Amino acid sequence: MENLIKWIDEITLNTTTYDTNEGKLTINYNDGNSFTAQLKWVNGLSVGANGALTLHYSGGDTQPVKDSNNNNVILKYIDSITLDTTQGGVN
């Protein structure tokens, strides 16, 4: 006789960072069937030497951060300050 009631036997989620299977969700049912989906989330954010922001996703994918005009977001920052002690000012 076929099972008329179906239930979940097991749920697994691979969370091994930067593994190509990271984010793989598997649901196993009592009837032998299973459901698999690839979930994606942000693992990190990096700033390049030029100030470009990059999102790092589960599974190893990366994508530049975009503004509302679909341009890459570039942070502006002060990278050095020199104090001119002979003139008493800052260059």
Name its key features.
mainly beta; three-stranded antiparallel sheet; rod-shaped
Question: Quick summary of this structure?
Answer:
By secondary structure, this protein is mainly β. The chain is 0% helix and 38% strand. The protein has one domain.
Number of strands: 8
Question: What fraction, in percent, of the residue positions are helical?
Answer: under 10%
Strand portion: 35-45%
Radius of gyration: 25 Å
Outline the biggest β-sheet.
3 strands, antiparallel
Domain unit count: 1
Instruction: Write the H/E string, N to C.
Output: EEEEEEEE
Uncertain parts: none
Query: What does the average pLDDT come to?
Result: 86
Number of helices: 0
Oligomer: single chain
Q: What is the 3D form?
A: rod-shaped
Q: Could you tell me how far the N terminus lies from the C terminus, measured between alpha carbons in angstroms?
A: 85 Å
Which sequence of strands runs across the widest sheet? 1-2-3
Structural class: mainly beta
